[in-house]
Amino acid sequence: AIDEASSPRGPDDHRLMVGVRVRPLSAAESARGAVDCLSVTEGNKVFARDPDEKMGGRDYLRLQQFNDHAYQFDAAFGPESGSSEVYARLVRRVVTAVIDGYNGACFAYGATGSGKTHTMLGQPQEPGVMPEAVEELMAAALRDDDFDYKFGVSYVEIYNEKVKDLLNPDSQADLEVREDAKHGTHIQGAVELAVGSAAEIMEHMQRGSVYRTTEATNCNEVSSRSHAVLQVTVKAVQRYGEGGGSKRRLAKLSLIDLAGSERAYKTDNRGQRLPGGGGGGG
User: Fold this and answer.
1) Measured distance CA(71)–CA(153) in Å, rounded
2) Cβ–Cβ contacts within 10 Å for residue 145, how many?
């Protein structure tokens, strides 16, 4: 999760934060006798125990070596953690920054089947980071008596180095990423729809997600093979006081669900979908 601006807001606010979430074993993994090799402690440390099965069994020549590894992140979440905890510790600060006029982004990165889409989108009974972010974004705007807000939403996928508009699926155009002084970094030609509530944003996102490129792989029966970028544009105009009506803020919140990042043999990707998992365009 990252927020950015032309000038830093504070020593701890203007920076990228990295968190890792350990998913529980799947039913198939438990059925074949797999065991956990990761443990999370102190809310930011991950310990990895080497099962020593890379060569098909225990390597007795390495028994005297220390094969366990420890890693530290800004935040770490065990299998028992919910998406709401991930949101509270990593993403809420980004949403606050966007309301203050700073661009912010949050993306999930990992192998196919690691739980990226579950964390970002979630389920009706356990909303993911994206629904929580847009809910809080709208709620924060309603609480702000000093500015009037307008919101727009765009939703695109990047697959095989081509950018497709998920809110305009009939268009076959390969969109281009542009940058200029008026719009900043933007996707030229992508539809941006005016929205007034979190429910509208989620409706557009769910409608667009139907057109995402998915395939069955060895790691996941329904695997997202493309990067999906949901971008909420926030325009704010000051209501009262000195400079009322003239002070303006423009910020963008980008929520990104990346395609799986793993070696092709793990997923049995072949042909057209092979570049999608390997690069996806970025």
Assistant:
1) 37
2) 8
